[in-house]
Amino acid sequence: MPKYEKSLIEAIVDVGECGIILLDESRNIILWNSWMHGASGISANEAVNRPLDAVFPSITGRRVFSAIDDAIRRGASSKLSHALNKWVFSLYCSAGATQVPRECMEHQVVIKPIAAEGGARHCLIQVSDITAAIKREKMLREIAQRAQASAKEAEKLSRTKSEFISVVSHELRTPLTSINGSLSLVAGGVAGDISEQGRALVEIAMRNTERLLRLINDILDVAKIESGKMNYYFEPLKLAELLEASAVVNRAYADQFGVTIEICNRVPDVRVRGDRERLMQVMANLLSNAAKFSPRDGRVRVKAERNGDAVRISVSDHGHGIPDEFREQIFGKFAQADSTDTRQRGGTGLGLNIVKAIVQNHKGEIGFDSIVGKGTTFYFDLPELLPGLLPEPSAASRSEPQERADCDAALCE
Amino acid sequence: MLNKILYVEDEPDIQTVARMALEVVGGFNVEVCSSGSEALEKVVDYAPDLILMDVMMPHMDGPATLVELRKLEALDGVPVIFMTAKVQPDEVKEYKAIGAVDVIPKPFDPMSLPETVKRIWAEQCEKTVC
Fold it and tell me: What ipTM score was computed for the predicted complex, to two decimals?
């Protein structure tokens, strides 16, 4: 240790970013650093040689008082927990600030016994400013609370939205159920014979009720998609079976336009993971579009083939094709190339928008090729479900699509 | 033979349409109830062969009524079919879990409703050998 030991110690005590108080065995202050001066407003001259409880009368009877006693009498160290020992000393933030009143300093107190001459024990008190940490902690707590509150709010909003969709869906369908039902009974002759004109009028009403119902279903689907409420029930599906079923279900509709649906399946054994109802909806949309835009006695071809790791399903027609200027908006809402199409062909203009969302939810992509005057092909790719990922299909279920592949081979060009 | 049908529906217009379909087109004997509690009151006396019931009804909905119906011994083996627009797969699963034999989606076609009901009843008979 150099000769200037005392002044060195004083310097070290003063440069530190914490308060240092040294007490003798009678709790008189021996040392009071400049940090303490700044935080308490009491100078070393004013503090030294006075008992600590004379400088800070509020410590009498508190935990800090007995901790100092324990250090001097028994040589025990202690660190006072901040939560239980707030504002032990009267200390203030930002020494020298002009702000009145000065902000109380949150501080942490550590007490250590020091062996002094002649077997006596002195007590060193170290005080650190933890105001910033406490503030940060408080702020984080507030942020967490706010985040929790807004998550709750969002959940509530989303619940309201799905309730709305469910109520609207029920309220709109209920009157349509009786309208459609009444008309169907009248048309069926249940209410007695009707004239030819009467029948024609009832059929117009029925056709338009059905159209209204389709529109409601499509609008509800769009609402569900946009609020993320469209539910999917994924399961392993035999693609061949799905395509067959979609052709059967849509045959009656195609018949109205004198259109035949052909299936050309190059991947008869492939399975995909999908929601059957939703994929049937995709096929119904593509098939009905293809049928209604086909020339009379036209053919609509459904084709399934491998495309890299995926399976590509396409629906082609020989219709008048999609005009260039319309291609951009084809997957938009209420999109139809010619607004008279809505009336003449009875679409809702929402179908392809819904189809795209469903395909994307199957991790698939949808697209189309179209030549004006020649026809249009819509296609979508679905990831193939690999055989290793599901139980082996039984021999009986396997043989069926293979036979179909043979008889369809002639249709694949 | 399927003859007596208890039909539970709170919407009067749909009641009229379905009743006409079941009586005139199907030739069934139909007792109509406008609520779940009315159905519970009438069901034992009427002793139906089959129950057709709406799902969304005020006070006591279809599923709640079904749970009560299932407690009545006299109704053991009487199939219950729901008629509803709520036909999401998980909803249908729930109806079947509490004992509905099938679901007819709304809007329904009244001309084919009697055939649909007969088909479900026949399928049910095959299962239970009635």
Answer: 0.83
